[in-house]
Amino acid sequence: MRQHPRRSTNAQLNASRGIRRNGFMTIDSDPIQQLxxxxxxxxxxxxxxxxxxxxxxxxxxxxxENAKDLKLKKSGKGWRKMLQKRSSYKYKFKNTxxxxxxxxxxxxxxxxxxRISHLVERGFNHISGTRVWGNWFREHAFATERDKxxxxxxxxMGYGLEMLSNSGKAPGLKTLRSLSK
Length: 181
Fold this sequence. Notes:
- By secondary structure, the protein is of the alpha+beta class.
- It has one domain.
- It has six helices and six strands; from the N terminus they run H-E-E-H-H-E-E-H-E-E-H-H.
- A four-stranded antiparallel beta sheet has the order 1-2-4-3. The protein has a two-stranded antiparallel ribbon with strand order 5-6.
- The relative contact order is 0.19.
């Protein structure tokens, strides 16, 4: 494997395994599929969706921390400040079969100040012909927080399933957030 000058070895391995996909980070659902076979109801899918979002919020929090530490030529103060808001990230949830699901988190490019995020992360060729190397702040967040994401997801799923079995209704996102932290 060719060594990228600015990427860590973990980031390269993750990229070669297909974990990075078009700038979005994806949670793999294989280990959890067998537990979810009975959760085919609307309320069960809601628990899965909220739990996955809590897990992805861990990555987004680490992303904003990594963005604070970047050394950029210009200050980037507004960009860094915007990355700290929850509305700067968007989430996609998709059922890809009877017992499969995918949860994806990405930067919300509808906000004009965040439209440069992919350039800061991956780098670009400047108009002068020089290469500006990327900082890979999002990919490093995913590589370092993977275990914590799965832990938060499992904890939230446990609380959500318990509340679902007791009351028959799925808890809201705020309720799960307060219980799993």
